[in-house]
Amino acid sequence: MERGILIGAPGVDDSGEWSFTHAHPWRSGAHTVEVVALFAATESPAAARTFKVVGIPENSPIRMSGASRHDCADAVCEHRPFTGDW
Fold it and tell me: Is the per-residue pLDDT at 45 higher than 70?
């Protein structure tokens, strides 16, 4: 959950492992998520974790150098195209 809103409910596989992929990109900034394990009617206490998503500023040398590349034509590119998205 994030801010009390359920953002996903992954299942556990036969080996006891699980993973979760958020359905939408995370916005820049700090995010706190709470994870709760459910087993039948038993619920664990929430475990909260905070992480920070760092965006790339518009004036970043990384973004500016990528934007200076030429667009790919119909032929095979000799470089990796850069759209400005990460």
Answer: yes
Owner of token pair 């992480």? 51
Give the pLDDT of residue 15: 92
Residue 50 is given by DSSP the state E
Cβ atoms of residues 18 and 12 within 8 Å = yes
pTM given for the model: 0.53
Token pair recorded at residue 82: 């850069």
Query: What single letter denotes the amino acid at residue 54?
Result: V
Backbone angles phi and psi of 19, in degrees to 5: -150, 165
Query: How many CB atoms sit inside 10 A of residue 33's CB?
Result: 17
In angstroms, the Cα distances linking 20 to 9, 69, 75 are 8, 35, 38
CA distance 18 to 4: 21
How far is residue 16's CA from residue 25's CA, in Å, rounded to a whole number?
27
Averaged pLDDT, 50-65: 78
